[in-house]
């Protein structure tokens, strides 16, 4: 192969490489023309590239606004979740308090039912709670015959406030 033939082969190879390069560039520009919204309908390569740059800037601005908006929404959502968690904990605490109060009330009711049942039996002596060390202030008789004192003790029939049979207290 002579130097002229070698130079021609080299020139032909260069032309082919350059033709492929221009084809790739044109395909890329045409693809941008299809992707980028076309306001004016221009097909010129420079106009397509210019629109592509504007569109990319527009997308970046939208992305920044969206990130800011999503960050704010996430912060607000986290705050709302925290508030709801606190409310849930408060409701749970109140529910537990109510449950404990209900359990105490049921226990007291069972004790009172047991006392009432044992004081009406005739088989043996009535079991009564220990007498209060504080004297009763003033007793009043109710329409059912029960005597109630200002400290909340109630007796039936002729029992005094300590639960022992005896005289009724005066109801002045």
TrEMBL record:
Top-level taxon in the UniProt lineage: Eukaryota
Protein's recorded name: Uncharacterized protein
Protein's organism: Russula earlei
């Amino acid at each position: 192969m002579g130097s002229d033939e070698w130079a021609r082969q080299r020139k032909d190879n260069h032309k082919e490489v350059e033709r492929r390069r221009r084809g790739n560039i044109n395909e890329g520009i045409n693809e941008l023309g299809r992707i980028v919204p076309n306001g004016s309908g221009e097909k010129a390569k420079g106009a397509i590239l210019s629109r592509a740059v504007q569109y990319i800037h527009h997308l970046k601005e939208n992305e920044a606004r969206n990130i800011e908006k999503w960050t704010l929404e996430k912060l607000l959502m986290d705050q709302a979740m925290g508030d709801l968690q606190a409310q849930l904990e408060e409701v749970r605490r109140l529910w537990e308090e109510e449950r404990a109060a209900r359990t105490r009330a049921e226990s007291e009711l069972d004790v009172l039912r047991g006392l009432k049942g044992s004081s009406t039996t005739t088989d043996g002596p009535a079991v009564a709670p220990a007498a209060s060390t504080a004297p009763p202030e003033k007793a009043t008789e109710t329409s059912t015959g029960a005597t109630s004192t200002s400290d909340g003790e109630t007796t039936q029939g002729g029992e005094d406030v300590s639960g022992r049979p005896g005289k009724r207290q005066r109801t002045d």
